[in-house]
């Protein structure tokens, strides 16, 4: 199952590019195709002028923020997070290609009073609105939302919701329990209302490190990860509560940059080196994951903070939407080519996403599913065999499996999360026992069915033999001059009553004293009719 989807957004030429007549090097032939032109001017192009890339979703420069929300697949990602999956949307691309614009909007949107109706809002703001609408539609489920927002600046993790005046970095540690990396002491905010989530976004955006270089006046100098944890509690038919823990990460990667082109030096150069290094590690991880020979080997997640924190999304149980942002300008052709190639490599990662659940609850769920399937199968078998539940229970041939089901273990089906270990163990035991009893009953029903099928075959053969005998007698009768000729009577025989036949002279044959034959014919016929009646042919599947 594919868990990494790539989509593309090509931004319009910016005023600077238009001013210096830096034309577009990208054409859109349609059907999700991107045609790079003028490649022969790129060093190492070996004379190739154009290259065509094909993808499922490509947003052309005219696409609006709403278009991206509607057609990028982000809505599905949110639904999956609500259903308990770990999901990630991240924006990748060279500096100034429109990553921040796509995720959160243009620069300055979060300065001063934020206009909630602005058309400039990016995917994060729109996703929060969609998330709350989606939760409201599921009134039968109780949801708890928590959000955190961090940035990785120069390989240091800073809490954007609680940066402190010194912007003290937080440690990234490995959790044995959850089997993943986590940020120690990261501020996590309870978000009961949509406004709480929006406040998290605003606060984080204000605290983010921005810089300026020749290619982007408002360049993000850090990677940011905004995470919304979604815990859902739903009551099942029998009172058991099932808890699922989904999450959605919005990752705005700092832009890859050619330091020569951005004229970086000093602090900006150090930032650029760190950005490029962590993006390179991300590239290695993606390349290793997409290479089937290396997939189960070493993946260098530990080589950067970014890959440590994204490891579960890339390789584990997550579902990822990668939005590759591209500049159309001729002057950025090499970078655009790199982004498209990077995406082509990453497209090959496939994993099986899984819902994150408490292992004990997962066991109960799987036992419940099995119990339900067995119940259904047994019910079907019972109907097919025309045996009522009571018949089965009173049938001494059946083991005590049904008796057990009539008096199930009494278990306190309270809120599972609040249950003591011993209570949970008892619940698991109960389902395991019920499961076992149903399995036994299932195999007994199957043996009964096999037995009946065998009986049916024997009776069919017996009937065929009797009908053959009737045919023989018929032919003897036909040869007698006294007996009027009837074309065939085996079917007529089966359709008429015994009384009809007795009164009829077609059976009397004084020459071969056929009263004995009549008697045996009647017996045979009765036997066939009885066999057919006894064996309900339709009932056996
Ligand atoms: N689709 C678009 N439509 C209009 N303007 C855009 C679009 N994409 C980007 N821009 C503008 O281009 C400029 C650079 O975009 P942005 O800052 O989002 O790039 P970035 O990839 O995040 O860069 P960096 O990696 O340096 O942070 C911004 O002024 C932004 O508003």
TrEMBL record:
PANTHER family: CHROMOSOME-ASSOCIATED KINESIN KIF4A-RELATED, KINESIN-LIKE PROTEIN
Primary location recorded for the protein, binned into one broad class: cytoplasm
Compartment(s) of residence: Cytoplasm, Cytoskeleton
GO (cellular component) term, any one: microtubule
Protein name, entry field: Kinesin-like protein
Pfam family, one: Kinesin
Protein family membership: Belongs to the TRAFAC class myosin-kinesin ATPase superfamily. Kinesin family.
Keyword Nucleotide-binding in annotation: yes
Alphabetic keyword roster: ATP-binding, Cytoplasm, Cytoskeleton, Microtubule, Motor protein, Nucleotide-binding
Residue ranges of every copy of the Kinesin motor domain listed in the record: 3-349
Coiled-coil portions: none
Binding of ATP, residues: 93-100
CDD domains, per database record: KISc
GO molecular-function terms, A-Z: ATP binding; cytoskeletal motor activity
Claim: Lipoprotein is one of the keywords in the record: no
